[in-house]
Amino acid sequence: MNFFKNLLPSTTPPHVRDKSEQEIARESLLQSVLLTVSVILLISITLSFSGFISALGRSNGRFFILAIAIPIFVVTVIRKLPIFIRTVPLMFFIMFFAISAFIFFGIGGGSTTLLLTFVLLAGSLQGRKHQRIAMLMAIVVIAAFAWMFGQGILPERFPTSAPDSRDMNSWLIAITLFATTLAITSTTITNLVSGLQEAASKQALLAKELAEEKNLLEIRIQERTQNLERRSAQLRAVADISR
Asked: How many CA atoms lie within 13 A of 218 on its CB side?
């Protein structure tokens, strides 16, 4: 029972409880995404071995899906690992399927959506620096496949009803839409993260000020208590002398 409870995103691991609110929120987000991906992979593996998915039912398909699934299962269960190490299999999973979608389905395979998810998760889980690196990687991948399809080096294996991958106008439209969506979402996430960091800093400062004020009040109370005790002693001494 405790094992499954520890897998829930709402359960904060002991090694994260003493960290900032931002780190706790990132760990919870990562665990939510990992659980979702793990369930999807578990269903895919079950269907592939049952023969319902012919593409994954082959030995190569099963090998690739297992090779990707096992590291994700491991980092989902072992929450003691650093957040960067737990993020790597997830990011590899998204980038792998984005490149695979480009190879098999061209521009109409939903690769840009996967790359956008790749960038957003990098920013949400690792911060601005890794988000910029992920943006550069996504742009390089799109530009590389646009060049390969445009030159005829890489043909579409399973053409879809989407725009022709050999048409550069289709690539320009897709890249423009991707860049626009990426800019909007990246700016939004950056602002949200900055707002969370600012709120956390203000909360920490307020907690520090309250602690200092509490200490001052305790010192004042202690001083007044000592003064009252001294006055009481003096009054007792006066009363004894009077008697």
From this structure: 6
